[in-house]
Structures are given as structure tokens and as C-alpha cells.
Recover the amino acids of this structure.
């Protein structure tokens, strides 16, 4: 069996996969099979007798972890793959903290603050301390604190570190005090931000040798993908887990290090061999992903970086077409060119829309492409950006959930104490906060016993506080006995949010209703899929919160149907992925390289690596585009092609500069250019104000489903039915569809046996390969054509035999 598996690797990959004599570092170019080596190594370890739970694999995104698990599942079976410890640093360590956190003085139901929560708390603190808010910009202070945590500096350490001197020089000497207060407040609220998940794991292991030892014994092999982008804290934890046995395998590519701004350090890779004395270094140089032309073009670009480990990446794939560069007259024309090209290739090659990706430097660039795609009926999906869970109405609902799970959560408390409005104003809130600070207690503790803490308020306010606190306490009391979906619905209704949102009829309200509707569908989906996977009859709100808190902006909502949609994403989110055809848009000075990085060589090199990452996502074709006139920040800007285009050797690049004659249809302002291309049109000299439609929706996503004006309330039967349909992704609903979906799909007495082909509502067509358990506990292992192998608890599974 081993032979079979390893036969799918080349010699150098195989050598790296079977090496188990100590620390190992695989440094290799893009597309050379690093992730493949990790995947096969895990399969190999499992076949050599390692138990799945003894293997820890750390990936950069949740998506990468899911994909890797699925591949391993195909190699060694679902049963083993299911039990692997595999996920992002944050998800794995937050799970460890849930179990062990009492050792460092937290309660296991701690809340995870997202970036918005932590910024808002920092802002509150800056205000409370009477600091000048211009001088102490909350997001820069948050960045300083984050950087400190990623370097494992607690608030106390920070006060005596060299950073304090830097802060004095930057004229923000009080950052250390803000950090100190912020840390205290997080503790009072029993909350951790994303960086704390790492810092606290590190402290837990550093201060509690027995706990560290427990996890060293458990994780007998540790594997890390994208090692070049790990930060100091992540490396330090990996060291804590592996320094005794040195069974670590890290893979990475220094040429793809793109998180310098977040504290990831290209020197990681260079320092690995210092940290692990006998580390063995492996190199892989053959790229299996891309055509020769793409590999050579990307090599010629990255050669301009001074800081790098020399590598000779080559491809034996077909020679392929040159990388194409097209300059458009305007951003609209750029979008039209991309769209036309996609349609042309698609009809010529009979491939799917899922074979195309559009990559850009920053999220906001997706808008013009989206407009064009919508007009031309090209299905697409936007990855990343402001996540669904960051929308106001969703954050409000989640704040209720969080307060129910952890009443000490300060940010959740502040968010909803008076939402929907219940007459508890800012004055009362600030009195609660002052009293809570005085006693070093949470806001909830004071609000729920105002008389005990001598909170000054009138009788009406006491009554309102009591009503609020008893509503939350009632939900707390049933939290461990009522299903997440049921409780979630009760909360949305009981809190008054549904009334608030469903009573109004403005267009934005419809969008908000849409979101609540989708949120509930998602919650129900979560509950049912957990059940199907056999995780018990009840799935509680805390399980859902844990999952939601860890969705990063690099992950998107889980939505199976990507094969038929063009992917739109930032280059950062595209790391590790591959697509047959890649369009990199907006290659202009001032966008790419980002203007903020042009002042230092180091940052410019990081931008160049970013373009290298983008180009190396392409398998067959790579297009680079830019526009001469671009509508940004409410006006038209004149752009010149990115300097990086000069770095790509002309033998691999086909330049197609402004090919389409400027046509009025492409002018953003609608006017005619007066000087032909090359000179600025007149209307650009007096920029027009932003048209409101261009400001709309900072978070464009997949084409929004249409919604009728008179949508049912989420508590009606009709809504229930529709939720089921929504799981098929909110297409416009017909009566026939509702009937079909709500008809019983499985009856207990329909015999199911190995070999049956079934159609599952989410996973599609698959063959039953194994059955185990009886009656209520009957589980089927199904090999799905497009979704890998899954184990389903038949009692809850939604499928039919075909
Ligand atoms: P990146 O640097 O972008 O993360 P990587 O080094 O992790 O890339 P992989 O994603 O593992 O590369 O591999 C790139 C592609 O090449 C994948 O489709 C993979 O399946 C394929 N591949 C790698 N090695 C082989 C091989 N020996 N035989 C066939 N296909 C291979
Ligand atoms: Mg990879």
C-alpha cells in the first residue's frame, strides 16, 4: 500500500515524505508539490502506525485544512483522516485553550474578540484615558499591540521593552498604558483577541510544564504548511511542542513570503536550521502546476529580489502561451476585456467558469469586475472581503449569542444593551462602565446587581436593566439543553431584533432581512451537518460561536458550488491555490505596488513576491491587465503600468497595449475624451463626485439572491420551508421546489446497502461504501463524486437513493 501512495511522488518529494529521523525543512518553489508532500507524508505516517490524533498539521486557512483532509481521506480512508488534528494555528490553539485555559486564569467559555471588537475596545479606552484621538488613532494603536503580542510581549513585558522608546519617538508614549488597560479589560470580559489565542497558548505551555508535556505526548508529529508566513509566536509554540522530539516537518517558499506587515518574517525559514540543530533541508525544483512559459516569466520577475534563497524552478509541462499583458483605457474596459476573454476561452475549450480566477491587490478592486460580470451574466463568487459575519445585523445577533454564552463579554454587552432601543442610554452605560472599572468587574456584574454596587439611576432605569438581564439569564439557563437553531431563533425573536428588521420596508432593510434569513439558514445548516457527522443529537450555541469566531477574512462561507463560478479574490487569499486561467488586474503604479510600500526596498520586495504568488497560481494561462483611467476614491485617477511589468523578461511576455479604441461606453464619467489616449481627458481634471452607487456595499459578494418584497417572517411556517430551499443556495423559490424539498426524503424502512448510489442535498451524488451501527446509530460512509468521502449519521442525513 505504501508503495502505491508514494509512487505518486517524484524522487525528491518521496525522499522528503518518508524522512522521519528528525526536524525537516522543505524549501521549494511555487507549485513544486510542498503541500502534496505534507499530504502524502501524513498518509505515510498513518500507514506506518501513527494514530491520527498523534499528528498535528497546521495550515494557513481553514479551506486549506479541509482540502488536505479530503485528500488524505481519499488516500487512507475517511475514518482515519477524520481524527487528524488539522487546522489553522488559531483554530487548533483555541480548542486547546478551551480545555486548558483555567490554568492561566480564564474561564473555558471565553469569547473570541474579532478585529472590530478589539478596535472598539481600544477606542473606548483611548477616550476614557482622555488621550487625543488624532494622535492615538485606534487602529494604529491596535496594530502596535498586535505586533507586541505576535512577538510574545505581554502588557508588562511591553512596558520595559525597546518599543516604548519607539513609541516616545513616534509621539505616542501612552501606548503601553493603553495596552495594559486593554489586557485588563479583556480579562474582566473573559475575552481573547486573535493574537491572544497565540500569546496565551504560548504562556500556557511556558508556565505549565505538565500541560506542555501532555500535548508533546499527544502530538507526536507536527507538520506546518506555508512556514514562510508564520510569525514569531507561531514558531515559538511549534518549538514548544517539538523541541523534545524534533519530529517536525515544515514546508515553505521564501519567495512567497507575503505577510511581513503582520509580523511574519522571511528569516523564519533561514532561522529554522538554527532552531533545530540537525534539521535536514530538502529542495524541490520541479513545478507541476504551470506551463514552462508561466514558470519562466515568474522566475524572471522574482530574480529582481535581492533577498532570497537561490532556487532553480523549472517545469516539464507543455511550453504554453506567453503571459499576456493588456492595457485598457479605463477600469470598465479592463473588466470588459477580462469578461470577453473568459467567454472566449470558455467556449473554445468547453471548460467551466470555475477554471478562471481574477486576482487583485485590494478587496475594493472587485467592484468594477463584479459590475461587468453581473451585466454579462457571468456567475462569480467573491472570496474574502468584509465577511458576512461582519455585517451590522449579523454582528448584533452574534453579540446576543455571545452575551448568552459569556455574560462578561464587554463588547457584546456594549453593542446590545440598548439595541433594539430599550431606553438604556449612554449615560447609564457610562455609569455602569465607571462602576465596573472601579471594582475591576465586568459590565454585566454591575448591570445585573445595580443596587449592590451602588449604581446611581432612577427607578425606571433599574427596571429596564432588570428586564434586560433577566431576558439574557433566561437564555443562559437553557443554553445547554436547547438546540442552537431553536435558541438562535428564540433570541432573534425575543430580543426584538426580528421586529426591528422585519417591520421596515426600505431597500436597505430588505438587504438586512436577506442577511438574517441567510444567517438562520446557515445556523440550521451548521446544526444539521454537525448532527449528520455524528456529533451528537444536540448542537449548542457555544459550538456555533466557536466556529464563527474563527472564520478569518481569508475564508469564505462554505458554499459548495464553486465549479461553475469565476473566483474573485485578493492575492493574499489565493495563497496555495491553483486555477487553469488567472487574470491579475489593476497592475498600475499606485495600486500594485501599493503606494505605501514604495519607500522601502524591503517592502517593495514583498510586493514583488506578491505578484510572484499571483502569477504562480496559473496552470495554463496568465493575463496581466491595467487601466489608464480608473475610478477610485470618488474620482478618476490616471494610472501608468506597474513597474513590475518591466521586471518580467520580454521573451515570456506578450504586450498588448491599449488595443481597443477608446469608446465612450467605457468612460466612467460618460463624456468623450478630448485628447485620445495618452493624455488626460478633460473631465478628469475636474473629478466628479462619487455617484452613490459606487460607494455602495463595501463587501460585494456572490450575486445576491433576489428577494420578494413581502418576505415571510422568520417565524412562520412558510419561512421554515424556505429555509430548506435556502440550503440549496437561495435561488428564487418555486412552489414545486418547496414541495419536493419538504417531502420526506428518507424513510427509516428504506433499506440502504453498500453499493447504493445516493443523492445528498449538499454533497451531491455518491456511493455508499460502508455501513456501521444499527437503528438510530446507523452510519454510512459515502464516497461522493465531488465532495470526497463523508460519514453520515443516517437519522439526520438529507438524501435519497437514486
Ligand atoms: P504553492 O507554493 O503554491 O503552495 P506547492 O509547492 O504547495 O505550491 P502543490 O500545491 O503541492 O505545490 O502542487 C502543485 C500542483 O502540482 C498540484 O496540483 C499537485 O497535485 C501537482 N503535483 C505536485 N507534485 C506532483 C507529482 N509528483 N505528480 C503529479 N502532480 C504533482
Ligand atoms: Mg502549497
Amino acid at each position: 500500500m505504501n508503495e502505491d501512495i508514494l509512487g505518486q511522488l517524484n524522487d525528491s518529494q518521496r525522499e522528503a515524505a518518508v524522512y522521519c529521523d528528525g526536524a525537516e525543512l522543505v524549501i521549494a518553489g511555487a507549485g513544486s508539490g510542498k503541500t502534496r508532500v505534507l499530504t502524502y507524508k501524513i498518509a505515510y505516517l498513518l500507514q506506518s502506525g501513527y494514530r491520527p490524533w498523534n499528528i498535528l498539521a497546521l495550515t494557513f486557512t481553514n479551506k486549506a485544512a479541509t482540502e488536505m483532509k479530503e485528500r488524505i481521506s481519499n488516500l487512507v480512508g475517511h475514518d482515519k483522516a477524520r481524527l487528524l488534528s488539522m487546522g489553522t494555528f488559531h483554530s487548533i490553539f483555541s480548542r486547546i485553550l478551551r480545555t486548558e485555559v483555567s490554568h492561566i486564569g480564564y474561564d473555558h467559555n471565553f469569547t473570541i474578540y474579532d478585529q472590530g471588537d478589539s478596535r472598539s475596545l481600544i477606542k473606548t479606552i483611548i477616550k476614557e484615558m482622555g488621550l487625543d484621538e488624532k494622535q492615538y488613532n485606534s487602529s494604529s494603536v491596535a496594530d502596535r499591540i498586535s505586533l507586541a503580542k505576535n512577538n510574545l510581549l505581554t502588557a508588562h513585558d511591553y512596558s520595559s521593552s525597546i518599543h516604548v522608546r519607539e513609541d516616545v519617538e513616534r509621539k505616542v508614549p501612552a501606548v503601553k498604558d493603553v495596552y495594559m488597560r486593554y489586557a485588563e479589560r479583556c480579562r474582566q470580559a473573559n475575552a481573547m483577541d486573535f493574537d491572544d489565542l497565540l500569546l496565551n497558548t504560548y504562556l500556557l505551555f511556558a508556565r505549565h510544564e505538565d500541560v506542555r508535556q501532555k500535548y508533546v505526548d499527544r502530538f507526536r508529529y507536527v507538520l506546518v504548511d506555508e512556514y514562510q508566513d508564520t510569525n514569531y509566536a507561531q514558531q515559538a509554540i511549534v518549538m514548544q511542542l517539538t523541541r523534545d522530539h524534533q519530529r517536525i516537518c515544515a514546508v515553505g517558499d521564501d519567495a512567497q513570503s507575503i505577510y511581513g506587515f503582520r509580523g511574519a518574517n522571511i528569516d523564519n525559514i533561514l532561522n529554522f536550521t538554527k532552531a533545530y540543530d540537525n534539521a535536514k533541508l530538502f529542495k524541490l525544483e520541479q513545478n507541476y502546476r504551470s506551463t514552462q512559459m508561466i514558470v519562466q516569466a515568474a522566475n524572471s520577475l522574482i530574480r529582481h529580489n535581492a533577498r532570497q534563497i537561490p532556487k532553480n524552478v523549472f517545469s516539464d509541462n507543455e511550453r504554453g502561451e506567453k503571459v499576456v499583458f493588456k492595457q485598457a483605457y479605463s477600469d470598465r474596459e479592463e473588466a470588459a476585456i477580462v469578461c470577453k476573454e473568459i467567454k472566449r476561452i470558455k467556449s473554445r475549450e468547453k471548460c467551466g467558469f470555475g477554471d478562471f480566477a481574477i486576482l487583485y491587490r485590494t478587496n475594493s478592486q472587485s467592484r468594477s469586475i463584479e459590475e461587468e460580470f453581473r451585466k454579462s451574466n457571468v456567475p462569480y463568487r467573491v472570496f474574502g472581503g468584509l465577511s458576512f459575519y461582519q455585517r451590522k445585523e449579523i454582528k448584533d445577533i452574534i453579540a446576543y449569542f455571545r452575551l448568552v454564552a459569556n455574560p462578561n463579554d464587554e463588547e457584546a454587552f456594549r453593542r446590545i444593551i440598548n439595541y433594539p432601543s430599550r431606553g438604556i442610554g449612554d449615560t447609564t452605560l457610562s455609569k455602569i462602565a465607571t462602576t465596573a472599572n472601579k471594582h475591576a468587574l465586568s459590565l454585566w456584574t454591575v448591570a445585573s446587581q445595580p443596587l449592590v454596587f451602588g449604581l446611581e439611576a432612577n427607578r425606571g432605569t433599574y427596571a429596564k436593566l432588570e428586564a434586560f438581564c433577566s431576558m439574557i439569564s433566561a437564555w443562559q439557563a437553557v443554553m445547554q439543553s436547547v438546540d442552537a437553531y431553536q435558541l438562535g431563533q428564540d433570541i432573534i425573536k425575543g430580543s426584538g431584533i426580528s421586529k426591528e428588521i422585519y417591520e421596515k420596508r426600505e431597500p436597505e432593510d430588505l438587504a438586512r432581512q436577506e442577511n438574517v434569513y441567510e444567517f438562520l439558514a446557515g445556523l440550521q445548516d451548521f446544526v444539521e451537518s454537525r448532527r449528520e457527522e455524528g456529533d451528537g443529537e444536540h448542537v449548542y450555541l457555544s459550538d456555533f460561536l466557536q466556529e464563527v469566531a474563527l472564520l478569518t477574512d481569508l475564508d469564505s462561507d462554505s458554499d459548495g458550488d464553486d465549479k461553475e463560478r469565476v473566483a474573485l479574490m485578493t492575492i493574499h487569499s489565493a495563497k496555495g491555490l491553483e486555477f487553469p486561467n488567472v487574470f491579475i488586474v489593476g497592475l498600475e503604479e499606485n495600486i500594485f505596488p501599493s503606494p505605501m510600500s514604495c519607500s522601502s526596498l524591503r517592502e517593495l520586495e514583498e510586493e514583488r513576491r506578491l505578484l510572484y504568488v499571483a502569477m504562480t497560481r496559473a496552470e495554463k494561462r496568465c493575463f496581466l491587465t491595467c487601466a489608464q483611467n480608473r475610478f477610485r476614491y470618488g474620482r478618476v485617477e490616471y494610472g501608468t503600468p506597474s513597474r513590475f511589468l518591466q521586471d518580467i523578461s520580454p521573451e515570456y511576455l506578450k504586450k498588448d497595449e491599449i488595443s481597443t479604441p477608446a469608446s465612450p461606453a467605457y468612460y466612467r464619467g460618460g463624456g468623450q475624451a478630448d485628447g485620445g489616449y495618452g493624455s488626460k481627458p478633460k473631465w478628469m481634471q475636474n473629478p466628479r463626485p462619487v455617484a452613490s452607487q459606487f460607494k455602495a456595499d463595501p463587501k460585494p459578494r456572490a450575486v445576491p439572491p433576489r428577494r420578494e418584497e413581502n418576505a415571510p417572517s422568520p417565524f412562520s411556517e412558510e419561512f421554515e420551508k424556505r429555509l430548506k430551499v435556502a440550503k440549496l443556495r437561495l435561488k428564487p423559490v418555486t412552489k414545486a421546489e418547496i414541495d419536493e424539498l419538504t417531502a420526506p426524503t428518507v424513510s427509516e424502512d428504506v433499506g440502504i446497502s453498500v453499493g447504493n448510489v445516493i443523492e445528498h442535498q449538499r454533497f451531491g451524488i455518491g456511493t455508499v461504501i460502508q455501513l456501521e451501527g444499527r437503528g438510530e446509530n446507523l452510519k454510512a460512509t459515502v464516497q461522493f463524486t465531488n465532495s470526497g468521502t463523508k460519514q453520515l449519521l443516517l437519522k439526520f442525513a438529507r438524501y435519497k437513493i437514486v
Q: What stands out?
A: The pocket of magnesium ion (ligand 2) is lined by residues 34-35, 576 (CB under 6 Å). Residues 228 and 252 are 5 Å apart (CA to CA).
